[in-house]
Write a structure and sequence with these properties.
This protein is α/β, with parallel strands linked by helices. The chain contains 7 helices and 9 strands.
Length: 240
């Protein structure tokens, strides 16, 4: 892949948030609330894909995991605690520095790389994750191709992204950003990807997408997995 998938302005935006990334009440508070929901889905997907024991504490033992668009390591650290040998990649150097520092303080051996996934030559990962990233990249087909190239033939991919719906425009862009729940400028609604579009992008590189699961919000449940795909969804993919 020769074309960079990174949008410099997006990398700069998220890089400015690096120092506050691990503050559960700071600018990334929504990610802290979202992370357990995503982890629950990922854990079930891991157990289903490798037919593991759902009660086991280290389902990724002996496996390599890659998180692309890792920020300051909010997903990388739990994946490491699940037993994986973890690599995190991010477009913002500030995020990688914050991730390395936090992992060191947590006693976790995680490899962090700064740059474009399509140009780092990473291969042979059992698990490839990219959470809320594809809506920020410049070249979506190239990005999906790069994720696929990094994965083993029998590996598992997990992706999540906002859906492009009237509800997501109202609540994620106009609502959450104006109210300060998400930093202003984080989302550009026109770049959101529908499940149908993501399925086509995956099919173009020989991948089969699983059944999407929605991530919804309610006053009683907060963020939770849902059958509604109106706001955000998370999904697995494997080679066809």
């Amino acid at each position: 892949m020769t074309n960079a998938t990174i949008r410099p302005a997006e990398a700069e935006h998220f890089g400015r948030l690096a120092a506050d990334w691990w503050n559960p009440k700071g600018s990334s508070a929504m990610l802290h609330k979202l992370n357990p929901v995503r982890l629950g889905f990922i854990r079930e997907a891991i157990d289903a894909h490798w037919r593991g024991d759902s009660r086991g504490l280290k389902p990724l033992a002996g496996k390599r995991a890659l998180d692309v668009g890792c920020g300051a390591g909010l997903l990388c650290e739990p994946l490491a605690r699940l037993g994986g040998t973890v690599t995190g990649v991010d477009a913002a150097e500030e995020n990688i520095e914050a991730a390395r520092e936090h992992a060191k303080g947590s006693g976790l051996a995680i490899e962090y790389r700064w740059g474009d996934i399509g140009q780092l030559g990473l291969v042979d990962y059992d698990l490839v994750c990219s959470m809320e990233v594809i809506e920020h990249v410049a070249d979506k087909p190239g990005f999906i191709a790069a994720l696929t190239a990094a994965m083993k033939p029998d590996g598992l991919m997990v992706l999540s992204t906002p859906n492009r719906t009237p509800q997501s425009r109202l609540l994620l862009v106009e609502g959450a950003e104006r109210l300060g729940a998400i930093p202003r400028g984080t989302h550009h609604w026109g770049d959101f990807v529908t499940p149908e579009e993501l399925g086509e992008l995956l099919a173009d590189v020989g991948m089969t997408m699983g059944e999407p699961k929605g991530i919804a919000w309610s006053p009683t449940k907060g963020l939770h997995l849902s059958d509604s795909l109106a706001l955000n969804y998370i999904v697995t993919a494997v080679r066809a």
